Amino acid sequence: MTRLPIAAIIGFVITGAYFLAAILAPWIAPYGMAEVVGDSWAAPSAAHWLGTDSIGRDLLSRMIWGGRTTIFIATAATILSFGLGASLGMTAATIGGWVDQVLSRFVDLIMSIPTLIFALVVLSVVPVNLWVLILVMGLLDATRPYRVSRSVASDIVVMDFVEAAQLRGEGRTWVIFREVLPNALSPLVAEMGLRFIFQVLLLSTLSFLGLGVQPPMADWGGIVKENKEGLVYGIAAALYPAIAIASLAISVNLVADWILNRTTSLKGGRGG
Fold first, then answer.
1. Predicted structure pTM score
2. Residue at 1 is within a domain
3. Burial, 125: exposed, middle or buried (Cβ in 10 Å; 0-12, 13-18, 19+)?
4. CATH number at residue 247
5. Cα 145 to Cα 135: distance, rounded to the nearest angstrom
6. How do residues 47-80 score in pLDDT, each as one tens digit?
7. What are the angstrom distances between the C-alpha of 272 and each of 58, 129, 154, 171?
8. CA distance linking residue 163 with residue 157, whole number of Å
9. Which domain holds residue 222?
10. Which residues lie across from 57 on neighbouring strands?
11. 3-state DSSP helix/strand/coil percent for the chain, to nearest 5?
């Protein structure tokens, strides 16, 4: 059995800890998400391990609840963007012709507009809630998985084992999911990790700008926004969520890199 490298272990531990805390938030958070329990920006103490925020809420509890919200929205948006983009990309590469041209030109049009600006425009004119955020973030980001999956699938569909499956009379769904997808896993897995990180950063940016998760709900970007003025006075409340965002991004990257190397070595150039 191949031993896990240290980097992968670190990535799994940190990522797993964040996801476990998100799942167990109702049971491990010392206080409620919006519960005021002390003075503004109180120093860390036995009662409040990270101190309190700008209006006296327990910062550790806000971090735990905010992590739950951030991870849930980012995960759901990643699944939506990756499922839609990758399936359309492989379909376009497999069918080709006018279907490929129409889908690819539409994706090019969407990608010509910066994702953040597009999201800000859309969210400024619609009511913002968790499901709207997931839908907007997932749909706007589906263009990237589309481009990657189409590029990879275009190289695979011309291989002998795919042509053999088509000659056997296999349908397009079979070809896509049984021949193309297994041989495209390595770059797609790596891309999925990157898309999750992008969703975390996009959500945090939207919340920092006031168009993401709305108070009194918490997410890491919103916690940075709520406490940024404290940095002027040497209060570190805004740094904790920033560190959480950075460490989650690094840990997910470490896991994605290991999976990429693992799937590449297992596939070893073998056909479907």
1. 0.88
2. no
3. exposed
4. 1.10.3720.10
5. 16
6. 899 999 989 999 999 999 999 999 999 999 999 9
7. 53, 43, 15, 15
8. 7
9. 9-267
10. 36
11. 75, 0, 25
